[in-house]
Amino acid sequence: MKSKILTLLMLLVPALLFAEEAPKLDTGDTAWMMVSTAFVLLMTPAGLALFYSGMTRSKHSLNTYTMVVGAFVLALIVWVVAGYSLAFSTNPNPTLQKFIGGFSSVLLSDIKWNDLSGTYPTLVFVAFQGTFAAITVAIAAGSVIERIKFSTWVVIVVLWGLIVYAPIAHMVWGGDGAYLFDEGALDFAGGTVVHMNGGLAGLVLAILVGKRTNYPRIAIKPMSVMLTALGAAILWFGWYGFNAGSAFGANSVAGLALMTTTIATAAAGATWMFVEWAVYKKPTLLGIASGIVAGLVAITPAAGFVGVGGAIVIGVIGSLIAFFGVVVLKKMLKYDDSLDAFGIHFLAGLWGALATPFFAILDKEVLWDGPLKASLEAGKSPDIIGQFIVQLESVALVGLWTLIGTTIVYFVASLITGGARVDKESEEIGLDESIHGERSFYL
After folding, report:
1. Quick check: is 17 in a domain?
2. Rounded to an integer, what distance in angstroms lies between the CA atom of residue 140 and that of residue 157?
């Protein structure tokens, strides 16, 4: 009898010692992720909507706000119905898994209310990622306001979330088997997935739908720079959820991301102010607000990977690149990106993604898998060039997918709605009244 008990113990003890511990809910992580989700949610229907509508002419400002909020609510529905599944579930076909998820999580059917993603509920992760999907397509709205049909925009939002956003999110963040994830591409909080993606989509749509009437022959003045500045402040506030929340817990990496986000944004806002002061002899509130957003965008892919010094450099250069895109490149190439989604989001996001390896904290506990982390774990010199090549591959693939996917979505939406462009009379009257039957102000 004793020998049987001894044998049983010899079998059980190793199993107990080496068994994987089941995920356990952490109330601190759960609280932080729920708060972060609320922060990111605030960024779109308040922050981005105010930022954009303040820069729009008064007769189109309500339409601009509606395009942002309309995109946000529709994108969240699309995300829960199928977008999350295509982005984060596993595709049974290994080849397809490289580029897109499967359908096992449609309508979140395979997620129980008490399932966990690490130390917090999976449903919180779904909601958190949904706010990212929703703001990305809303960013693109800034390039085509004042001349696109609202009906066409609605169709674009629905199709784009499934055809463009979900596959890109999957490739970068989709876990084992997803192409760019396996390559070790570093994108902490969405430099490629959100900002490059949304900014380039905006440019593609702007070129396809055409320029605003009389652009650039007539001066287009913003309705309210103060509303835009308020929107930028709300974006900055919400961005702490965006970046620090992407640490997926109340931990040291979240603290790092919070600090780098703060200093990079401050550096970028100051840079735009001083550059504008030097070039035009007048520092403007609109310029400072634009610099703030450029800094937020630039630090997003690097927020949890770099230190304070790197964050300052990323913010300063990101602001300079965005300034060049808005002031020089747009005039040089003669495209009508109404509110400079491409100049600020794509260009600053591109810079941040490519700069990340050069300023990364050389700590394998901080970095995701990739050439940089692999070289550190092997005790070799940091493979910065190898990681940079991966980053190049990442931005190239995301750019190509966005370009082709957005073009397809535009033509399908245009076909469904009988053309994407509003008529000239509606544009002259203003889309607030001609489309929505409302006005921002009744004076």
Report:
1. no
2. 10
